[in-house]
Amino acid sequence: xxxxxxxxxxxxxxxxxxxxxxxxxxxxxxxxxxxxxxxxxxxxxxxxxxxxxxxxxxxxxxxxxxxxxxxxxxxxxxxxxxxxxxxxxxxxxxxxxxxxxxxxxxxxxxxxxxxxxxxxxxxxxxxxxxxxxxxxxxxxxxxxxxxxxxxxxxxxxxxxxxxxxxxxxxxxxxxxxxxxxxxxxxxxxxxxxxxxxxxxxxxxxxxxxxxxxxxxxxxxxxxxxxxxxxxxxxxxxxxxxxxxxxxxxxxxxxxxxxxxxxxxxxxxxxxxxxxxxxxxxxxxxxxxxxxxxxxxxxxxxxxxxxxxxxxxxxxxxxxxxxxxxxxxxxxxxxxxxxxxxxxxxxxxxxxxxxxxxxxxxxxxxxxxxxxxxxxxxxxx
Amino acid sequence: xxxxxxxxxxxxxxxxxxxxxxxxxxxxxxxxxxxxxxxxxxxxxxxxxxxxxxxxxxxxxxxxxxxxxxxxxxxxxxxxxxxxxxxxxxxxxxxxxxxxxxxxxxxxx
Lengths: 380, 109
Known about the structure:
The complex is a heterodimer of chains A (380) and B (109). By secondary structure, chain A is an alpha/beta fold. Chain A contains 8 helices and 21 strands. Chain A folds into 3 domains: 118 residues, Histidine kinase-like ATPase, C-terminal domain (Heat Shock Protein 90, 2-Layer Sandwich); 132 residues, FAD/NAD(P)-binding domain, CATH 3.50.50.60; 111 residues, FAD/NAD(P)-binding domain (3-Layer(bba) Sandwich). Chain A is elongated, with a radius of gyration of 28 Å. Chain B has one domain: Transcription Regulator spoIIAA (2-Layer Sandwich). In chain B, strands 1, 2, 3, 4, 5 and 6 form a 6-stranded mixed sheet that branches. In chain B, α1 links the parallel β2 and β3. The interface between A and B is large, with 42 and 37 residues.
């Protein structure tokens, strides 16, 4: 539905244009309405004060966004300025730039159209969540972040959400969540003595090289455990895969089970680790719950990951494990876009992500591009 | 449809008083925009020449303000050490935060 109204080039038209805006958008949430009213006021004032032109405001409110156009016959071209804190003027278009999701100027034969859009999708989930996000060992060797950063996302305000960090409100037109996941650890007090030295959470080339010729335990029944075990075995390690259940086929793909055999990986069913033995971080052996002791120089843990998303509450759609849904799963257009317009997720926190450092870095690079395209109004 | 009605400025009331410390308190109510910002600017000319250390703007009754109103507050902040904004509405507060002016315009709830 589009509504239009014409206004004279007189000062009183600025408040008349605002009144028209409030009437047209009377069913929108207050925060959206306030923001659109302020931006309309700026555009109308530019028409009257700078273009000295009669003008027309048109407002198109769809389910997803509000689009406003201000059409005048003036010849000048408005520019966004960057006033310092002591400069009184020059903030009109800057306000439109900062409050809208996208804006632009189209030149006409006579005059111009200045337009902006603002998403309305976020408005339904007006929520404020405050939580402590957990500090974590992310991947092997990574140090734990102090669990002190409080963050919450308020989607009750448009444009599209305002994150809070500690006690500071940060206004943003786009947010990228890259809070990662906690890799599950063994509930053993002595574990931290070994982490990063002989106990790891990922198996890459350096680890494979280091483990060549050594006895290595891989703990976990999922595909990532199998892939690590095969990789390490191919690097010359003597690998034993330990898992809790009675049959690997419950949790692992068949082709990987065949590969385990092919590369000589020993598989121990119904195995859980009760104790680690060694000194100065160098692992020598583990004791299983059934009392058996096995000599291992290295141990790799693939016990799954829990996303660091507790603090999000219900603001964003998440999968059953708590990972943030993106793309079609979230009803969003963009690959890394979440269920709230303007909020993106990248890396391990994302549902369906490939839990690898390289892909997380790649997604981080992609998401910057997506945000840039969104903010510049170019379709992604 | 056209709204080519009479040129009436937005409704604005400006009252000046003093707080217990003697600092001027400017009570601004209604809507502040480019059509009536001169009203507030004129009242400020009776306050700033005396160079008070602190001026309080009571904005509890101010429903709307755009960059024209903001310009007057910033201009006042250039001449007066401490500008306090009392009880700005959510959108006025957002305007000030978004434009990064919280360092020169102190918001007091």
